[in-house]
Structures are given as C-alpha cells and as structure tokens.
Amino acid sequence: MTRHFLNLADAGGDAIAAMLNDAMDRKAARQGWPKGKADADAPLAGHTLAMVFEKNSTRTRTSFEMAMKQLGGDSIFMASGQMQLGRGESIADTARVLSRYVDAIMIRTDDHAKVEELAHYASVPVINGLTDLSHPCQIVADLLTITEHGKPLPGLELAWLGDGNNVLNSVVEAAGLFKFNVRIAVPQGYDSDSSFIESARAAGSNITQTRDAAEAVNGADVIVTDTWVSMGQEHAHNKMAAMMPYQVNEQLMAMAKADAKFLHCLPAHRGEEVTDAVIDGPQSVIWDEAENRLHAQKSILRWCFGQL
Ligand code: CP
Ligand code: NVA
C-alpha cells in the first residue's frame, strides 16, 4: 500500500520512533560533511520528489530539497501559481499526472482536504508540508529536538502558549502517540481542533486547556509557541490584543523547570508571541529545531519509501 504522511497517525508511534532513531544516526554519521554531499548509502538514489507550494516557505522547502540531495535523490520545486493547478486544473488530475513523473509528492496548501484528495488520486506517496489543519513534518523535527536535548518523551510536560493552530494540532497528536502531556493556554475564541485533543486523551495523554498562561508553564519541561497569525489568516487587531497575555517572556520562562527548553517552528514575530530575550536566550533550542527539519525529512521520506 502507498505510504502517505498526511498526519502523524498515518505512520503511528512505532514508525515515528524508528524515524527519530534513523534521523539521529544519519545526523551523527555525516557530522562535518559538506551539506550537499550524499550520505554514504544514498538510499533514495534514482528517486525524485515533487514539492508543490501554495504558500510561502523557507525551512520546509530547503530542508526537503537538501534531504533528497543527501539521500542521493532529486527534487523539483513547483510554485502552484506557475502550475496549471493555479489556473484551475483539478487536484485529482494533478495527482495522476505527477504520479507518472515523480516518485513522491510533498504539498503545502491551505485546505487539508486538498492534501487528502491528492493522496487519494496519487499512486505515489504524498507528504503534508503544512495545511490549515496540521504540520506533522514539523513535529517529527520537534520530537527529535526535545529528545536530543535530554528530555524523554513519555511523561514530558509541554506547555503551548498563543494561538490554537495547525502546529498545535500536530503537537497534540504526537502527545497521544508518545504518552506526553500538553498544557494548552490559548485565549477564548482561538481554541484548537477538539478531535485531536479527544484522540490524545483517549490514548492516555493528559491534555489540559486553560486561559491562564502562568498555570500552563508552571513546572513545564518544554514551552512552545508559534505565530499568532498563520499564513492565509487576517492580521486582526483584536486577535493580537487577546494574544498578548500569552507572549512567551522571561517572567513566564522562569516559572517552568530550570532546565526547560523553548521551541518555535519559525518564522518568529519577535515582540509578539516571543520576546528577543527568550528566543535568543540560553533555554531556546530553535536553531537545532530548524536544523532538525532536514534530518527529520530524510527519515519521513525513507518511511514513505518503505525503508523504515
Ligand atoms: N516551520 C516551517 O514550516 O517553516 P517554513 O514556513 O519556512 O517552511
Ligand atoms: N502556523 C504557521 C506555521 C508556519 C510554519 C502557519 O500556518 O502559517
């Protein structure tokens, strides 16, 4: 069966654990190498990934492109505005055509239903590079980063502050798969998708929702936030005001565990969801997190091709 990666549950906890181990091993094996040099085993030699972007990207595009290069394969960047997709060709027809040219498709789009439709009609693996609903590739990198920084996932206390968005949905999904707990502090009116929360709770995770940022961060192992205005959303004045009490600042960080880490998927809006002092401070692991997108993508790709 074709292995699509639309959400973390498509792979499941065991496969994601295998991805994390593979990513750590491969990262260690190529320390100090030029970034464009292929891994010794070049496991995706002869394979090509099409990358369809309906939204902007720095990390996802570059990390997937370099991931394919390091795995010995190739990639094709496709901005949807320059494709017939941007002129109304259907997702289904695009999926059928691309499947005749390439070995896998990554897509970043606004509507999660489009990724599902693409996967339905494609005969090659489809990877979700971010939708309005979720950002699973980001969270594989985040789990890698948290683990590398000495925090075991089971029993971890993760606090999420700010907007109840796509990245949070994938954090909550991961919590259910890896048995960690999430304290969500989001203002009224900006809560995240309840189905992810219900599934994680059913899997045994403790997912709490509060309007009090201090309550969420108190004694937490990891503090995570993201932009208050995601791509495709209106920059609304009242939303920014509602978010202000959830800004990650030094005062809030001081309430977490002394060895707590700060994560942010980036791009950051300094002075909004996080202060300079925190994002540039000693507890911030954002550059490792960004680098780990590359190592995580390689293992996601290998899983899609049945190598993990
Ligand atoms: N974190 C993330 O997905 O970044 P890009 O939007 O730059 O891809
Ligand atoms: N929540 C953000 C994540 C960007 C990587 C967005 O959807 O724009």
Structure notes:
With 308 residues, this protein is α/β, with parallel strands linked by helices. The protein folds into 2 domains: 8-135 and 293-304, 3-Layer(aba) Sandwich (Rossmann fold), CATH 3.40.50; 150-284, Aspartate/ornithine carbamoyltransferase (Rossmann fold, 3-Layer(aba) Sandwich). Helix content is 42%, strand content 14%. It has helices spanning 8-11, 13-29, 59-70, 91-101, 112-121, 136-148, 166-178, 194-202, 213-217, 237-243, 250-253, 276-279, 286-304; strands at 48-53, 74-79, 104-108, 126-128, 157-161, 181-185, 207-210, 222-225, 261-264. Strands 7-6-5-8-9 form a 5-stranded parallel sheet. The chain has a 4-stranded parallel sheet with strand order 2-1-3-4, with helices on both faces. α5 links the parallel β3 and β4 (126-128). It is globular, with a radius of gyration of 19 Å. The model has no long low-confidence stretch (mean pLDDT 98). Bound molecules: phosphoric acid mono(formamide)ester and norvaline. Phosphoric acid mono(formamide)ester binds at residues 57-60, 130, 138, 265-266.
